[in-house]
Write the structure tokens for this entry.
Amino acid sequence: MGKEEIEAFLSDFTVRLKCSASTQRRALNAIVFWYKRGLDLPIEGSV
């Protein structure tokens, strides 16, 4: 999953579930954490 797919997922997540910005930020942080610490993989398209 790359940067664009993560952004699309978070946008859909936020709109469908009517989540707040802080919830969206937590979801993003969880995804980034999982990629870095759990999978030991970079997120495609990120710096």
User: Anything to note?
Assistant: The CA atoms of residues 5 and 44 lie 10 Å apart. The helical segments are 3-17, 21-39. The chain has one domain: 3-39. The chain has a mean pLDDT of 84.
